[in-house]
Design brief:
2 domains, Alpha/beta knot, elongated, binds adenine, Trp Operon Repressor, Chain A
Length: 227
């Protein structure tokens, strides 16, 4: 899978993309992630990427020309163009799964007060928000998308099953988990987990996941047959 990320702050991506699973996925060739500076698609001396909104109002908008030039240079028939914006529908595990099935994502990171509407009209296939809060720009949000999608690519994480079992993939939050030692500062690992009875362990895990979801995120169970 390939990502082309258009941003005013390429350095924001250096840390997140260079660690752990993302780093290994890149090295293994599962994913190619290219980060582009939108200023490289300007042609004036000051490399201007923003301008005042028509009709007045506070702040600046991202100009359409550099974004159009960059996207049109990278776009292929199988590309999906994504705009990071708090106005988009929320990123969910289902949306991450859908993105993981696409060969090429071009991600536009918004900045300033937003982008010229013609970018949305003519270029963007999908808008995505990572939550109901406003970041200073879309770069961190794009890094979140790259992370959530890359870990779903076959071979990206060691134990394939863990992407299948993890919170949200099942529609439920994951329940409590334990590792050694069996007793730590008086706190014991539940007996069932030490029993070696896989059937009982699976039953316990499922019940704990249901309970945790009911307590913390009842909205995930609404209208579903998961209770
Ligand atoms: N840009 C600024 N805030 C954002 C958010 N919550 N999600 C996606 N992009 C953003």
């Amino acid at each position: 899978m390939e990502f082309d990320i258009l941003t005013l702050f390429p350095r924001i991506f250096a840390g997140p993309l260079d660690e752990s699973i993302l780093k290994r996925a890149r090295e293994a060739g599962l994913v190619q992630i290219r980060v582009h500076n939108l200023r490289d698609f300007t042609h004036d001396k000051h490399r201007v990427v923003d301008d005042k909104p028509y009709g007045g109002g506070p702040g600046m908008l991202m100009k359409p020309e550099p974004i159009f030039e960059a996207v049109e240079k990278m776009q292929r028939p199988d590309s999906c163009v994504v705009l990071m914006t708090p106005q988009g529908p929320p990123l969910t595990q289902a949306r991450a799964q859908a993105f993981a099935g696409k060969p090429h994502l071009i991600i536009i990171c918004g900045h300033y007060e937003g982008v010229d509407e013609r970018v949305r009209e003519a270029l963007v296939d999908e808008e995505v928000s990572i939550g109901d809060y406003v970041l200073t720009n879309g770069a961190l949000a794009a890094a979140v998308v790259v992370d959530a999608v890359t870990r779903l690519l076959p071979g990206a994480i060691g134990h394939e099953q863990s992407a299948v079992d993890d919170s949200f993939a099942t529609g439920l939050l994951e329940g409590p988990q334990y590792t050694r030692p069996p007793e730590f500062r008086g706190m014991k690992v539940p007996d069932v987990l030490l029993s070696g009875n896989h059937g009982e362990v699976a039953k316990w895990n499922k019940e704990q996941a249901r309970q945790r979801t009911r307590q913390r995120r009842p909205d995930l169970l609404e209208g579903e047959d998961k209770l």
